[in-house]
Amino acid sequence: MTKPARFAFVLLLATSLAACARAVPGTVQPGAPGFVSGLWHGFIFPVAWVLSLFLPGVAVYAVPNAGGWYDFGYFLGIVFLGVGARGGTRVVYRTRVVRR
Is the Cα torsion angle 25, 26, 31, 32 positive or negative in sign? Predict the structure, then answer.
């Protein structure tokens, strides 16, 4: 079996096993953090991460939460509002030089 085929097989197996996982009913409680809280937690992630290194009561992710909507808000908070928004680079290509 070639290396790419072995990698594809392991990836397929891992994905299949992950698809079998399910949440335990009753773990999401009323009032658990949802989309808006996830958005906020994603936005303040860099500060929360640094504080979590020194303060045991600070965490970067709320558990328990409302599930998929919290995760989606967390993702949006990190990528679009938080760290990911400032991580871009600008590339300028110079195709010609005009000399006068």
Answer: negative
